[in-house]
Write a sequence for this structure.
């Protein structure tokens, strides 16, 4: 049985796809690209009684990373944020993450854990492989769940 349930949400000013990867057996969840809607996504996690264990960023543009702080701040338990190692500069510089173009002064994003190509993560009861897919940004990546037949690709 496939234990992965995927929920899609369209968030933010440019209609970004955000996903919850939910373990139907444990209720643990990871959030992919929380966009610009951290509080709204936190409410949806609570409404479903899901426990967020990670935030995965496919890249660092504002429309994918802008909701990280609000989402993390909405829960007492720390939610680690993952991004590819080549994406640090994009996350931290408003001119690269495009938040400066919108006149946002708070366009400095972060990750707690920087990843490498083909790195294997064990999150929410799933094996997740990191696939480096540069092009859209220098550190764009995809998250592949081979056992579940799922790929989260962001803007790649």
């Amino acid at each position: 049985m496939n234990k992965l349930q995927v929920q899609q949400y369209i968030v933010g000013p440019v209609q970004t796809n955000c996903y919850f990867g939910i373990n139907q057996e444990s209720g643990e969840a990871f959030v992919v690209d929380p966009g610009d809607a951290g509080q709204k996504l936190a409410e949806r996690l609570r409404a479903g009684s899901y426990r967020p264990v990670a935030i995965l960023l496919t890249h660092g543009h504002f429309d994918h990373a802008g909701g990280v702080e609000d989402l993390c701040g909405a829960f007492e338990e720390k939610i680690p944020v993952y991004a590819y190692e080549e994406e640090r500069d994009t996350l931290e510089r408003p001119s690269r993450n495009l938040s400066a173009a919108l006149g946002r002064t708070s366009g400095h994003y972060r990750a707690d854990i920087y990843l490498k190509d083909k790195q294997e993560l064990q999150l929410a009861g799933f094996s997740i492989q990191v696939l480096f897919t540069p092009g859209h940004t220098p550190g764009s990546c995809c998250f592949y769940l081979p056992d579940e037949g799922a790929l989260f690709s962001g803007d790649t």
About this structure: Strands lie at 4-11, 16-23, 28-32, 51-56, 81-84, 113-115, 120-123, 126-132, 141-145, 150-152. The chain is about 20% helix and 35% strand. The mean pLDDT is 92.
